[in-house]
Amino acid sequence: MDVVLDNLDVFIAGLRTTVGLTLLSYAVALGVGIVIAACRVSPIPPLRWAGVFYVETVRNTPLTVLFVLFFFGLPKVDILFEPFPTAVIVLGGYTGAFVAETVRSGINTVSRGQAEAARSLGLTFPQVLRIVVLPQALRSVVGPLGGLFIALTKNSSIAAIISVSELVFRTDNLANETARAVPVYLGAAVAYLLVTIPSGVAFRALERRVAFRR
Amino acid sequence: MKHRLGKLFLLVGLVAVIAAGCGDDKKTTTTASSGAGTSFAAGTTMARIQQAGRIKIGVKFDQPGFGLKNPTNGQVEGFDVEIAKLIVAAIGPNVQIDFVESVSKNREPFLQDGTVDMVVATYTINDTRKQVVDFAGPYFVARQDIMVKKDDTAIKSVTDLNGKKVCTVKGSTSEKNLAAKAPSAEVTLFDTYSQCAEAMTDGRVVAVTTDNTILAGLVQASSGAFKLVEAPFSDEPYGIGVKKGDDAFRTFINDRLEAIFGNGDWAKAFEKTLGAIGLKTPAPPKVDRYTATPPAPTTAPASGGSGSSSSSSSSSSGSTTTTAN
User: Fold this and answer.
1) pLDDT tens-digit profile of A32-84?
2) At what angle do helices B247-263 and B79-89 cross, to 10 degrees?
3) What are the φ/ψ torsions at residue B145 (nearest 5 degrees)?
4) Is the dihedral of CA B38, B42, B46, B47 positive or negative?
5) Would you state the pLDDT for residue B174?
6) ipTM entry
7) Residue B188 near residue B167 (C-beta atoms within 8 A)
8) Do B191 and A173 touch (CB under 8 A)?
9) How far is A159 from chain B (nearest CA, A)?
């Protein structure tokens, strides 16, 4: 275990990048997910189709493939993002598809009568969604959204393939340098648990706080 | 249910057939074509091979330019293969060569347990490996070089890489050498060299660095978009591995290497293989007839990376040439 303790700074630096990447991507994912979910329940058919198309293509493509396509593909049409922003966009967009499905299921838990009542009071569809439906829908899916956060934390390790120096990237290098792969990767596993377990606890606490009694 | 079970058996059978077909893949056979019928002292490895009429040689099957299995005819092709044939030709004209695939990790065990008689597989000579096997040669010295876009004139040597974005592969010797020679270069690391080439095309990095033999292949594939800087900054001497302590065989191979360095066969083999991917034929290296150390009592064989791109040669480049001749 010495090899881990001697290189704590490597793990800390990697963990810092991992957490930063995860938080930024999660913000993107929530934004993307709510917009796509709104599209999917919208009364305008093309918006619904666009929502379905986004969710089904992004959700059903391996994350590694998306990373390579974005990183090496976009420069061919003269769009060049640095590795870190690329990672935020790809992780955010990918997780966003899952957030969209989660939020949509939340929207389905809000009884139809509420939306109809709001419409009859003269609210427009976006207003109905924003003021009446979404606040209730989001409360009911805090648990699943927490699950997506944890999945995202772990998925962020795939950014290593485009040279983002997050936890797995640095772990790989350290394992190579020290030729002690097992303890080094155990160290990485512990570092991930230090992030994922507390976030699970935090999301459960949040879930209890915002829950409403019907 | 019964139906499904039948399908399962069919699948298993199919897998077995495919696996059996692949089993053959790890060996291909060639006969050396020229050479004189010399006689050797009884008990030597050369005499044994001559008697048996065949030799087993470990080569890479996946290293372009050195040892690459041609999928169309099943033959292994490359500089290592040519060198192996030239050496065997001196044992006997009709000695059959069984080429056995050797990856970096099994080269030492293969020599120690007699799976192969010698290894010619981009095998970098270093002191760690000399503890468990012996080396004839070197027969080639690979050098770490730099590849840039063809219109780049700013980068002339490794020190010019300081402050620039440079690409190489994770966990390679190239990465360590770069960090030592150009400490303030901004290093981008990918899993493969083709990704580095892609990143240079896209303008993400301005240079790619690794062994010149690998870069030559990338330059050729770029059809004129990239060029080699030709400012090498490290040495990777490739040797021929033999069983530890087999000094007679090692001396024989060294003699033979010097002969083919002198008579032009070495240069011809180079032009035919590495020359075809754009490398200029260098002067032959100087054979290193070092005095073998007694076998070390270590139990673990020194397994290292491939000679061309992995571990354990950066520190050795100075020490391997100390006892030349």
Assistant:
1) 999 999 999 999 999 999 999 999 999 999 999 999 999 999 998 989 999 99
2) 110
3) -130, -175
4) positive
5) 83
6) 0.78
7) yes
8) no
9) 11
pTM as predicted: 0.68
> How does pLDDT run across B18-39, given as a tens digit for each residue?
555 554 555 666 665 444 457 8
User: Could you tell me if A129 and A87 are in contact, meaning their C-beta atoms sit under 8 angstroms apart?
Assistant: no
Nearest chain B residue to A68, by CA: B195
Q: Which residues pair with B174 in a beta bridge?
A: none
Query: Are the CB atoms for B154 and B229 separated by under 8 Å?
Result: no
Write down the residue that tokens 């420069």 correspond to. Answer: A75
**CA dihedral over B189, B192, B196, B199, signed as positive or negative:** negative
**End-to-end Cα spacing for chain B:** 73
- Give yes or no for a contact between A161 and A67, defined as CB atoms under 8 angstroms apart: yes
Number of A–B residue contacts, CB under 8 Å: 29
Q: Long-range CB contacts (< 8 A, 24+ apart) of B72-80?
A: B74/B25, B74/B28, B75/B28, B75/B30, B76/B28, B77/B273, B78/B273, B79/B140, B79/B269, B79/B270, B79/B273, B79/B274, B80/B120, B80/B121, B80/B122
Q: For residue B167, count CB atoms less than 10 angstroms from its CB and return exposed for 0-12, middle for 13-18, buried for 19 or more.
A: buried
CB contact under 8 A, B190 and A173: no
Specify whether the CB–CB gap between B133 and B240 falls below 8 A.
Answer: no
